Amino acid sequence: MQKSLPLAQAYEKLFAQFGPQQWWPGYSRIETIVGAILTQNTSWKNVEKALANLKEHEALNLQRLYDAPEATLAKWIRPAGYFNVKAKRLKAFMALVVEHYRGDLDVLFQLETSELREVLLAVNGIGPETADCILLYAAERPVFVVDAYTLRFMSRHGWLGEAATYDEVALLFQEQLPSDTALFNEYHALIVNLGKDLCRKQPQCDPCPLRDMLPRNGPYAP
DNA sequence: GACCAGGCACATC
DNA sequence: GATGTGCATGGT
């Protein structure tokens, strides 16, 4: 068990500054899953264009995505980049559900969280972050999504050991915060927003609501 | 014209 | 186990 970190206080400050982020508001589960795969190393704006194309072709459902030829799918998702690999990845996920879970997300999502995570990770093209995005945003499990922003956020505040792994960081959040899907949803989005909005544009941390939480002698100390 | 974006698989050492 | 590389579009 790690020492206690001010993660709850940081959340309060971020929420007070930025307000609710509402990631994937009112998106269907399949739309959320497709988005999670398409957004791999890709800006969300480009993903939205690809999702719009899929909608336009009425392809944003499990069976249509399963049935569509890979080349056609690649053409539809072109704006999201890496379209050939992502078309394969989408089809791999749809094949999992159609061929092993009766084509029904409800059946897949009956699995207990850690087992569901293992099943997702076994799909080619679904790694830890994508699996956790699906768990949190589509299956609504209290799982913390770790990404590049989260790692930056944690090490910037001196809250990470030398060689923290993905799973260790996720566990930090899950151990030190109440197990609350809505909280983890907002928190992850707030960290991403902080990284984009302030850390990038104002690297000196001036208007950052967390600037008084930076380590005094750290590399980012004022 | 670089550099980055809500990663992952695979090859190689 | 760690490190490097391919995958590709669109915005800044």
Task: Walk me through what this model shows.
- With 222 residues, this protein is mostly helical.
- It has two domains: 7-21 and 145-213, no CATH class; 29-138, Hypothetical protein, domain 2 (Endonuclease III, domain 1, Orthogonal Bundle).
- It contains twelve helices and no strands.
- It has helices at 7-18, 29-38, 44-56, 62-67, 70-76, 83-100, 105-108, 113-121, 128-138, 148-156, 166-176, 181-199.
- Helix 1 crosses helix 12, helix 2 packs across helix 3 and helix 8 (113-121) packs across helix 9 (128-138).
- The longest helix is centred in the C-terminal third of the chain and has 19 residues, at 181-199.
- The model has no long low-confidence stretch (mean pLDDT 92).
- The chain binds a DNA duplex (13 and 12 nucleotides) through helix 2, helix 3, helix 6, helix 9 and helix 12.
Fill in the keyword field for this structure.
222 residues; mainly alpha; Endonuclease III, domain 1; 2 domains; 12 helices; 0% strand; globular; DNA-binding
Number of strands: 0
Biggest sheet statistics: none
The portion of residues forming beta strands comes to: under 5%
Determine and state the CATH class of the largest domain.
Mainly Alpha
Rg computed from alpha carbons, rounded to a whole number of angstroms: 19 Å
Structural class of the helix and strand makeup? mainly alpha
The pLDDT mean sits at 92
Oligomer class: single chain
Sequence of secondary-structure elements = HHHHHHHHHHHH
User: End-to-end distance, in Å?
Assistant: 31 Å
Q: Might you state the CATH topology name of the largest domain?
A: Endonuclease III, domain 1
CATH superfamily of the largest domain: Hypothetical protein, domain 2
Number of domains: 2
Helicity level: 55-70%
